[in-house]
Amino acid sequence: MSRKLAGSLWQIASRWLDNADDDLPSETSPATKEELSQIVSAAKQEWLDAQSYFNHATEPELVDHAILSLQAAERKYMYWLKRMENSQ
Question: What local confidence, expressed as pLDDT, does residue 65 receive?
């Protein structure tokens, strides 16, 4: 794979998985069940997207990034899922 293509994939991956617009709600602000459900759904989708990204990564640097992104997305999803279950 050419360096130009690898660089393009890095840029796409960065924009796709590291979106700065996705702010986490504050721990001090109480979330309604509906809000928590939406957060859990978004975290699950992020995890599924990270799995897909991992499955398609071919360059060693991209595989490393994909693994870290997948682990982070899984932990985020598990955190919010547990928090939603504890709120019920």
Answer: 94
DSSP conformation class of 25: P
Q: Which two tokens stand for residue 6?
A: 């690898």
* Alpha-carbon distances, residue 39 vs 42, 45, 48, 57 (angstroms): 5, 10, 14, 27
Inside any domain, residue 22? no
In a domain, 3, yes or no: no
Domain limits at 88? 33-88
Q: For the purposes of burial, counting CB atoms within 10 Å of the CB of 73, is it exposed (0-12), middle (13-18) or buried (19 or more)?
A: buried
Q: How many structural domains are present in the chain? A: 1
In the chain, which residues have pLDDT < 50?
Answer: 20, 28, 30
Which DSSP state fits 36? H
